[in-house]
């Protein structure tokens, strides 16, 4: 009798997980997927005279043709359509992106046949980055309603006392179903010139990120804030641990603290990109402690991961297992990106009267 009951529970779990809902005993849970993806230079083929995008043109060094562009869009659409789908049977409800050139490439992406029926909206601002790359947010209109958005400029001065132009930090506030939530999308300065030499720039980015979070918390001290992005630092680096003071263990959290589930993954050796046989987890999602809710009557953190489907990996040679890049060593390889996407699930208990939606 006991084994029959166990079998029925397992069967219910298997069926409902394909509908975007998880069951535990007689309870059902709504799941929302939040994802981030560095898409490795999603550029159009047009030369922008105001940015250094000459390489990504048909006559440039990369020979970036229309055919290659649309192949790239197809690849990125495929990845986004599958992140989190093993649990929810659908694509993410909110997706942060970096290394996108402009709004038009985002429009091309969300209207791709693999994504068009998902009805994604776009939040995007042009950044002053020298290469012309921006961050952006995609959201399913059936799941998330943006109410506020702003782009915060990161002011950096280089060793020659000149402005070092980089990416803005994007914050979007809104309603995830009926709950207020804030999303910050980041792409912090790179390690060009060496990790130590470039570290002050990422410290400055972390301070800006903290300022944005603090500003929201001053208005609402129990705000649910998620910050995501390619930070060009690992979860244990000073920008995270000393400036933002992120914590990697839930038991150590106090009200208003930032929890970084990627720290545990990193300590296990899991990464989102590799360089010279070393794995880094630069792509991260962390959030305020108010998304840790044991009552499960509102959205709370469930689990996080790095999306590493086999097709995203290089299959042979020296870089076997590394992300399958669009370009490698200056040569076109036709892959996806030099980063793996990351994601987390938010979950809450559904009331018997709730109207079911999976965000389509």
Produce the secondary structure layout.
Layout lengths: L1 H16 L3 E4 L2 E16 L23 H17 L2 H4 L5 E7 L2 H8 L9 E5 L9 E7 L3 E9 L3 E2 L5 E2 L4 E8 L2 E9 L7 H25 L5 E6 L7 H7 L1 E2 L10 E2 L2 H6 L5 E3 L2 E3 L2 E6 L11 E7 L20 E2 L2 E2 L9 E8 L11
Parallel strand pairs: 2-3, 10-11, 12-13
Antiparallel strand pairs: 1-2, 2-20, 3-5, 4-5, 6-9, 7-8, 9-10, 11-16, 13-16, 14-15, 17-20, 18-19
Helix pairs in contact: 2-4, 5-6
What's this, in brief?
By secondary structure, this protein is α+β, with helices and mostly antiparallel strands. The protein is 23% helix and 31% strand. The chain contains seven helices and 20 strands.
By secondary-structure content and strand pairing, the structural class works out as alpha+beta
- The helix content is 10-25%
In round numbers, the mean pLDDT is 91
Q: What is the subunit arrangement here? A: single chain
Question: What kind of sheet is the major sheet?
Answer: 7 strands, mixed
Query: Given the C-alpha coordinates, what overall shape results?
Result: globular
| Amino-to-carboxy terminus distance | 39 Å
- Can you write the helix and strand succession as a string? HEEHHEHEEEEEEEHEHEEHEEEEEEE
pLDDT below 50 for ≥5 consecutive residues: which ranges?
1-19
Indicate the radius of gyration in whole angstroms: 20 Å
Number of strands: 20
**SS strand fraction:** 25-35%
Work out the helix count: 7
């Amino acid at each position: 009798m006991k084994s029959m009951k166990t079998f029925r529970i397992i069967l219910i779990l298997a069926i409902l997980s394909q509908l975007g809902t998880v069951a535990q005993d007689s309870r059902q849970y709504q799941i929302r997927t939040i994802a981030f993806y560095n898409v490795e230079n999603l550029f159009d083929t047009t030369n922008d005279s105001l940015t250094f995008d000459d390489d990504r043109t048909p006559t440039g060094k990369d020979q970036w043709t229309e055919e290659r562009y649309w192949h790239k869009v197809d690849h990125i659409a495929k990845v986004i359509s599958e992140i989190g789908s093993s649990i929810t049977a659908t694509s993410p409800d909110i997706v942060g992106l970096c290394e996108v050139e402009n709004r038009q490439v985002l429009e091309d992406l969300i209207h791709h046949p693999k994504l068009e029926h998902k009805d994604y909206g776009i939040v995007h601002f042009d950044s002053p980055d020298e290469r012309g790359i921006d961050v952006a947010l995609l959201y399913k209109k059936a799941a998330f309603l943006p109410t506020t958005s702003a782009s915060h400029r990161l002011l950096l001065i280089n060793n020659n006392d000149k402005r070092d132009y980089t990416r803005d930090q994007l914050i979007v506030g809104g309603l995830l179903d009926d709950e207020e939530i804030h999303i910050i999308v980041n792409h912090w300065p790179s390690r060009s010139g060496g990790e130590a030499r470039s570290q002050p720039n990422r410290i400055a980015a972390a301070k800006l990120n903290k300022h944005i979070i603090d500003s929201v918390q001053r208005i609402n001290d129990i705000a649910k804030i998620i910050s995501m992005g390619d930070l060009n630092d690992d979860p244990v680096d000073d920008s995270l641990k000393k400036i933002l003071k992120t914590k990697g263990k839930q038991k150590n959290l106090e009200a208003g603290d930032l929890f970084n589930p990627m720290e545990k993954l990193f300590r296990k050796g899991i990464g989102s990109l590799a360089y010279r046989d070393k794995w880094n987890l630069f792509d991260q999602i962390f959030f305020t402690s108010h998304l840790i809710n044991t009552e499960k009557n509102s959205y709370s953190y469930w689990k996080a991961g790095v999306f590493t489907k086999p097709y995203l990996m290089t299959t042979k040679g020296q870089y076997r297992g590394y992300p399958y890049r669009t370009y490698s060593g200056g040569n076109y390889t036709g892959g996806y990106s030099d980063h793996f996407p990351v994601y987390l699930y938010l979950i809450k208990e559904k009331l018997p009267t709730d109207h079911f939606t999976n965000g389509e």
